[in-house]
UniProtKB/TrEMBL annotation:
<dbReference type="InterPro" id="IPR050194">
    <property type="entry name" value="Glycosyltransferase_grp1"/>
</dbReference>
<dbReference type="Pfam" id="PF13439">
    <property type="entry name" value="Glyco_transf_4"/>
</dbReference>
<feature type="domain" description="Glycosyltransferase subfamily 4-like N-terminal">
    <location>
        <begin position="62"/>
        <end position="178"/>
    </location>
</feature>
<dbReference type="InterPro" id="IPR028098">
    <property type="entry name" value="Glyco_trans_4-like_N"/>
</dbReference>
<keyword id="KW-0808">Transferase</keyword>
<dbReference type="InterPro" id="IPR001296">
    <property type="entry name" value="Glyco_trans_1"/>
</dbReference>
<protein>
    <submittedName>
        <fullName>Glycosyltransferase</fullName>
    </submittedName>
</protein>
<dbReference type="Pfam" id="PF00534">
    <property type="entry name" value="Glycos_transf_1"/>
</dbReference>
<feature type="domain" description="Glycosyl transferase family 1">
    <location>
        <begin position="186"/>
        <end position="351"/>
    </location>
</feature>
<dbReference type="GO" id="GO:0016757">
    <property type="term" value="F:glycosyltransferase activity"/>
</dbReference>
Amino acid sequence: MREIVLFRQNLFRISETFITQQAQAMRRYAPLYVGRLRYGDGPPDASSRVLRDLWRRAAMARIGAQMLTRDPAPYLRLLGDRRPALVHAHFGVDGVYALPLARRLGVPLVTMFHGFDATLSTAAFLGSPAWMNYPLFRRTLARQGQLFLCTSAYIRARVLAMGFPAARTRVHYIGVDCGAIRPRDPQEETPTILHVARLVEMKGTEYLLRAFAMLAPVHPAQRLLIIGDGPLRGRLEALARALGIGGQVTFLGAQPYARVLQAMRAATMLVLPSVYTTTGRVEGLGMVLLEAAATGVPVVGSRVGGIPEGMVEGETGLLAPERDAEALAARMREVLDDRDRRAAMGARARAFVTAQFDLHRQTAGLETFYDELIDRGVGA
């Protein structure tokens, strides 16, 4: 197997399991995870190297200096004698840091855009020390990177608008593991509406709480389960109490991936009412919608970003305008009021995801992209 560098500055975040799932599904390429810091243990037997391991003294100061200079030398030290065939950076922000490394290695660079890296305002990037190099070197990345993959057609349109070349910018859905995620028996359903998201403005959790408060008198047995954490958690918990639904809403915080899948199997539906934010953040696709669909659970989302690409509206899920709690409640009620329709939507959702978003088929396509770059001798 050829080895590739899987580059992500902050490795193994609990909210980014889609990165490791894709990498571990590869059959002809072996990933070496490379970055600055680890935020978890990673997959079993995964090989990873981070800058934090390189320096025992003043590590964070040295990492900060590398962030400013983009000097690939520390990463070359981490690699030692290893000679990867390719570098694959997740997120455009990481691409500008991986580019000097790929060029020094003389190998192709693949950069994958997921969401905020294609939509966030330049001012927001410049306001973050970790991100400020991105708008400064984005045009260099567009000129010198070999392939740009986008997690949805919506994200591709935004990437093209930033000036990336159309011929080297492709849509590539990551996909979900339809073999590992088995369709649930409809009898497993419980009166639970599920929301899985980081608790930030973009996810629209506020509007879900307001919509649920409208539904509660009509469907008093329903409960709302919220999995995820973030800076808005305290404010959202207070809103649930103010709306009189505090006893019907459970905030579980961040949970392991297995616990999330378990909760999906019991849900009447999964709701992701994402919104456009003033800084430009918007949902690139919504992997959690695909995971719910693979489980056989109908989904309700907002008509923003790449969310509509993850469903067949009216057949596998329903859409509502963003920031419209009343319309969201109406869509949710449509699902709740008809158990047979819920079951049919769930079955169609499973079939749709299996046909369009299967992880192993999508990963095989990714490896074909790698083959084409390497076999053509395309290097940095």
